[in-house]
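Side project, low priority. Logging it here so it doesn't get lost.
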Amino acid sequence: MSARPVRLRRRADFQKVTRQAKKRVTPGVILQALRTDATSRIGFTVSKRVGNAVVRNRAKRRLREASRMILDGTSEGYDLVLIGRKDTPTRPFDLLLSDLRRASIELGVVSSGDA
């Protein structure tokens, strides 16, 4: 992805990815990836089950930074949704990175050499 990836913002886009995408669940994050013909886009979501607004915002900030570090080598043509889990706000950052790296390699979003 480029330095500033295009963001998924519309609810319908998130729902489409949820319905059609392949997903990988790790302790720190759930990654959903849907192959498209367009430019890659990325979205982040954290439910209220994770915590209050402060905790959810912290989780999203951590996911954005992890995606910037891991998904920078993403090939074009993916809609990605990163879903924060209960452990996302407190999980050690290096483990969160390895969770995202493993999920992205398993889904073929990045090659093992890029991650």
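Brief comment: The chain has a mean pLDDT of 89.
Revisit when time allows.
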